[in-house]
Amino acid sequence: MPVTQKGDRVVLQHPKLQGASAEILYYGATVISWKAPSVSGSEPAERLFVSGKAALDGSKPVRGGIPVVFPAFGAPTHPDHAKLSQHGFARNNIWAYESTVMDNEAGVSVKLTLDPTDAIKARFDHPFHLEYIVTLAEHQLTTDFHVKHTGLSTTPPFEFQALFHNYIRAPANDVHITPLKGVSYYDKTEATEEARATPKVESREGVDVKKFTDFVYENAPGKYDIVWPSGAIEIRTSNLKDVVVWNPQQETGSKIADMEEGGWERYVCVEPGYVCGFVKLEPGQTWRGQQVLTVKV
Ligand code: TA6
Questions:
Q1: 253 lines ligand 1 (CB under 6 A)
Q2: Domain tally for the chain?
Q3: Is the ipTM, as predicted for this complex, more than 0.90?
Q4: 155-210 confidence digits (pLDDT tens)
Q5: Could you report the per-residue pLDDT of 119-154, keeping only the tens digit for each?
Q6: Catalytic site residues (predicted)?
Q7: Could you confirm whether 126 is annotated as catalytic?
Q8: Which atom of ligand 1 lies nearest, measured to the CA of 244?
Q9: Is residue 212 within 8 Å of 189, Cβ to Cβ?
């Protein structure tokens, strides 16, 4: 069956390609598994990292997979987001399965939605409707995020940030991410707020994460290649002008309660988003952000 709803999740199986699949937890609309062969013909394999200590019961955001970050990235900075928790509420609320959008030889696609609950309104009192469409193709996974302002024309606009917090399964000490040379970024590992707010310019052809890395690249190319000796994942985006590269290494990874022992060695986070500044949405408007992940090798 291409689409199977199983209690707390929906499972997508490629209608033609045995072994290509994806699992989406309704909690946070979190993709917790994506198995696919590579374009170069490798066998289907798990392409995302989920910590063995991750909570999948809705008690806290999933440590891994593809958490959806909305309406704030990181610790909220917008005055209207003061009541929000780190990375906002999209990743720690239960989304609804709405429909199967596509089911043919090319692949399968489902739509999940999130609307304001009383708990959300208490922290973010704006009229919105979120749609998250996840599409599984032979070698690709696409995530489309739509944010609609559902208010009457008399209601005020609202502002938000959005990001796909991808945990890409890869040997952290052997990966390089391109092309980021010449791109301005903020180094969140700096010790002072002033240093963290001071932009730097990436000088490396390929960005590695051999050291604790938490870099927010602004106005980035929108297309990224994550390469290591035995693999390569490509990310192509639209409407996501920034990208975050994160790996805590042992320095901070060992202090993350739901990080499995040594987990930081087995992933790199490459997170396309709109996180430098805010999207402003007027009543009736819809914002769309998309990423396409392809297993090249
Ligand atoms: O995207 C990178 C980051 O903002 C890091 O600073 C780190 O906090 C990571 O997200 C994980 O955040 P979480 O709230 O899931 O522990």
A1: no
A2: 1
A3: yes
A4: 999 999 999 999 999 999 999 999 999 999 999 999 999 999 999 999 999 999 99
A5: 999 999 999 999 999 999 999 999 999 999 999 999
A6: 165, 271
A7: no
A8: 1
A9: yes
Active site residue 87: no
Which domain does 119 fall in, by range? Answer: 3-295
Residue 63, annotated as binding a ligand: yes
Distance of CA 137 to the CA centre of its chain: 18
Q: Measured in angstroms, how far is the CA atom of residue 248 from the centroid of ligand 1?
A: 9
pLDDT, position 225: 99
Stated pTM of the model: 0.98
**What pLDDT does residue 59 have?**
98
196 labelled ligand-binding: no
Does ligand 1 lie within 6 Å of residue 91's CB atom? no
Which percentage of the chain shows pLDDT scores above 70? 100
* Whether residue 242 has its Cβ less than 6 Å from ligand 1: no
Instruction: Please tell me the distance between residue 196's alpha carbon and the centre of ligand 1 in angstroms.
Output: 15
Residue 218, class by beta-carbon neighbours within 10 Å (0-12 exposed, 13-18 middle, 19+ buried)? Answer: middle
| The three-state (H, E, C) secondary structure of the chain, written as one string | CCEEEECCEEEEECCCCCCCEEEEECECCEEEEEEECCCCCCCCEECECECCCCCCCCCCCCCECECEEECCCCCCCCHHHCCCCCCECHHHCECEEEEEEEEECCEEEEEEEECCCHHHHCCCCCCEEEEEEEEEECCEEEEEEEEEECCCCCCCCEEEEEEECCEEECCHHHCEEECCCCCEEEECCCCCHHHHCCCEECCCCCECCCCCEEEEECCCCCEEEEEECCEEEEEEEECCCEEEEEECHHHHHCCCCCCCCCHHHHEEEEEEEEEEEEEEECCCCEEEEEEEEEECC
CB atoms within 10 A of CB 74: 16
Neighbours of 276 (CB within 10 A): 18
